């Protein structure tokens, strides 16, 4: 398909981590066809991360609070835009609604087996079936179907020029090198125990001379986790909860190290090439863990010792307590040997 001057719509609305994985797709499309117009259907949270990106020409907002009306409105916006190509990366019925209402001669989606919620009904062309692989590689299958080279894999996530001043001010406020700690996720089963975070924070201060900065949102659960960690720690970490995703990019970019759960800060850190220790138990780290980088810093509680199996999409519940403080400290030692600036 000739993409020069094409109007391209991307449907991937919700998860911020998935939005990070979509950015190399957007950048590859723009390298192949600089004159193409790329519009992206996004909910407000991931949109706050992507807004202002040099290769995203248009954001079509879908507010989940608007329910069906928001999905229909986004579909109608795409319909008026008369796109040449729609890429549906989200295997969900809500994405199918937007895709169905859009006007585009080519609507590219997943193969029938992977397109959950009848999503395959709404696309006109589908990528070939493929065994499970890393989510990033899965999205690159769409580029292969379009004849677009994903290399070099680039995010261009920032921080941008107007954000560097705030970054300098934040680093000066902390006053010493710091480690960013991704305190909690959208799924409690992917969270770690607060007393263990407190023990790690104390070790970072006492053994490595590093401050700890808590990052994440300001949900009730995250705020309670912050309270418990700070109460249990001898050296209470600094809280940067609720800083917003653009500020989060700057905070992670300036960190010496990131300790991340199976959540967006993990993927943002990889995009920024910041060393990240990944605490993984609910999902296969080969599929949702760090892409291409820092595999030696992954703590894998998803698999049993010695387990050999193909990459899986299956969730495994209740495994995060398997990760001990000593496991994290061991990876910090490894980071200190291999990556510390």
Explain the layout of strands and helices.
Blueprint: E1 7-11, H1 16-32, E2 37-42, H2 44-50, E3 58-61, H3 67-81, E4 85-88, H4 93-101, E5 106-109, E6 125-126, H5 135-146, H6 164-174, E7 178-182, H7 194-208, E8 211-215, H8 220-232, E9 238-239, H9 245-254, E10 257-260, H10 264-272, E11 276-280, H11 285-288, E12 298-300, H12 325-338
Parallel strand pairs: 1-2, 1-4, 2-3, 4-5, 5-6, 7-8, 7-10, 8-9, 10-11, 11-12
Summarize the structure.
40% of the residues lie in helices and 14% in strands. The protein has 341 residues and is α/β, with parallel strands linked by helices. Strands 3-2-1-4-5-6 form a six-stranded parallel sheet. The chain has a six-stranded parallel sheet with strand order 9-8-7-10-11-12, with helices on both faces.
Q: Could you describe the 3D structure shown?
A:
The protein is of the alpha/beta class. The protein has helices at residues 16-32, 44-50, 67-81, 93-101, 135-146, 164-174, 194-208, 220-232, 245-254, 264-272, 285-288, 325-338, and strands spanning 7-11, 37-42, 58-61, 85-88, 106-109, 125-126, 178-182, 211-215, 238-239, 257-260, 276-280, 298-300. Strands 3-2-1-4-5-6 form a 6-stranded parallel β-sheet. Strands 9-8-7-10-11-12 form a 6-stranded parallel β-sheet, with helices on both faces. Strand 7, helix 7 and strand 8 (211-215) form a beta-alpha-beta unit. Helix 3 runs parallel beside helix 4. The longest helix is centred in the N-terminal third of the chain and has 17 residues, at 16-32. The radius of gyration is 21 Å and the shape is globular. The N and C termini lie far apart (45 Å). The mean pLDDT is 96.
